[in-house]
Specification:
This protein is α+β, with helices and mostly antiparallel strands. It is built from 12 helices and 10 strands. Strands 1-4-5-8 form a 4-stranded mixed beta sheet. The longest helix has 31 residues. The chain starts with a helix and ends with a helix. The protein binds flavin-adenine dinucleotide (FAD). The site of flavin-adenine dinucleotide has 19 residues, from strand 1, strand 3 and helix 12.
Length: 387
């Protein structure tokens, strides 16, 4: 089966070898059990470290910050392979959040000191990062955030409440978006790098989620949290630029593992449709079933180039606002649809926890919400068309 699908991956020889190496790595190092049903909160720090040791984070880093100088597409190849061979999508989601909304903005906007202090530990897996943007009154509308950053000489005092922060329970450092003055709207947004343990920062309510249950999430409260001006990421009032920069990366590339999941589901459905017999024949002999699987495969093939396109454009240093929105929208909606189709093809057994199909669906459903909902991605596409 793998051999037949491999040509469809459309990878050159070196990329195919990297893909296979990452699949072997995931099968050997990330094969931990996931209790059926979810809600287990089993984030495994050792698995995170193994991914870092495999070189996952350094694949994203430029040479001057410890990267190996490989093309960015290599990271997509590896993420796709991990999605294919590792069932722990919560872990992969957490790794991606760390990568795109903390490490990349640090590389782009961090001061020399911030980069010297943090790039190494964030890349070698000893330090985990979280991004705290969302607030109860500021979800899609990030400019409505109310966490205040009051300047006092050489420090800022941060006060506010953040919610739905991926990695918060395990994070060592937080990228926090605040405003120096809510009346300034977008012009007031400012980003900060705040270490866990800074007085006034507390990780509060943890969240039980529908899926991605091994990706820990919590709220973060800032109560007169004093940070030096050197903790500011980028310039005062330029937080929106940093946020949008990290969203371009995240939206464009966070769903690379989903490509691997979709391919795994195509394979599982083909196998099931060939072997499950009803009415005296394999269910795959019914066009209603075989066409569903054909559509899964077509969707996958339509999605892959969108993600690789973002990697190529980013590699060339080009903006990808539109391309990232297109990739995020198309891959997330295809991912959900593919999981739904797989569930239907497996019938009642797909609905049962032990096969893991229902887990794939629960994990996939979040993808049309995080990093900007599907509606927000469509808004970006429409705006780029002049609407
Ligand atoms: C698994 C997961 C992980 C997350 N991780 C993080 C994290 O690490 N850090 C963080 O800060 N946040 C995180 N979030 C929060 C996420 O960024 C927000 O949920 C998202 O931005 C949407 O905001 P909201 O949920 O408040 O929805 P709302 O903004 O309230 O939107 C509700 C509905 O209205 C629609 N809507 C809103 N405005 C418009 C509009 N202008 N046009 C059309 N439709 C509109 C939306 O599309 C949606 O359907 C995470 C969320 C999830 C699900």
């Amino acid at each position: 089966m793998e051999a037949r699908l491999r040509p469809a991956l459309d990878l050159d020889e070196a990329s195919a070898a990297l893909h296979d190496e990452a699949v072997r790595f995931a099968r050997a190092a990330l094969a931990h059990d996931l209790p059926p049903g979810g809600h287990e909160h089993d984030f495994i720090r050792a698995a995170w470290k193994k991914c870092a040791d495999f070189g996952l984070f350094t694949l994203a880093l430029p040479k001057e910050h410890g990267g190996g100088g490989a093309p960015l597409a290599n990271l997509v190849v590896v993420m796709e392979a991990l999605g294919y061979a590792c069932r722990d999508q919560g872990l992969l989601f957490s790794l991606n959040a760390h990568l795109w909304t903390a490490l990349m903005p640090l590389v782009q906007f961090g001061s020399d000191t911030q980069k010297r202090d943090l790039c190494g530990p964030l890349a070698d897996g000893t330090c985990i990062a979280a991004n705290a943007t969302t607030e109860s009154g500021a979800g899609s509308d990030v400019c409505a955030l109310r966490t205040l950053a009051r300047r006092h000489g050489e420090s800022y005092v941060l006060s506010g409440e953040k919610c739905f922060v991926t990695n918060a329970p395990i994070a060592d450092v937080f990228v926090i978006y605040a405003t120096i003055d809510p009346a300034l709207g977008a012009m007031g947004l400012t980003a900060f790098l705040v270490r866990r343990g800074t007085p006034g920062l507390s990780v509060t309510r943890t969240h039980e989620k529908m899926g991605l249950s091994t990706s820990p999430m919590a709220d973060v409260v800032l109560e007169d949290c004093v940070v030096p001006t050197s903790a500011r990421l980028g310039r005062e009032g330029r937080g929106l630029e940093i946020f949008e920069h990290s969203m371009e990366w995240e939206r464009g590339l966070i769903l690379a593992p989903a490509l691997g999941v979709m391919r795994r589901l195509v394979e599982r459905c083909v196998e099931h449709a060939r072997t499950r017999r009803q009415f005296g024949q394999p269910i795959g002999k019914n066009q209603a079933v075989s066409h569903k699987i054909a559509d899964m495969k077509i969707r996958l093939d339509a999605c892959r180039p969108l993600v690789y396109r973002v990697a190529r454009l980013k590699e060339e240093g080009r903006p990808t606002l539109l391309e990232s929105a297109v990739a995020k929208l198309q891959v997330s909606e295809s991912y959900v649809r593919t999981c739904m189709d797989a569930l239907q093809i497996f019938g009642a057994s797909g609905y049962m926890a032990d096969l893991g199909i229902e887990r794939e669906l629960r994990d996939a459903l979040a993808s049309t919400l995080y990093s900007g909902t599907s509606e927000i991605q469509r808004n970006i596409v429409a705006k780029s068309l002049g609407l």
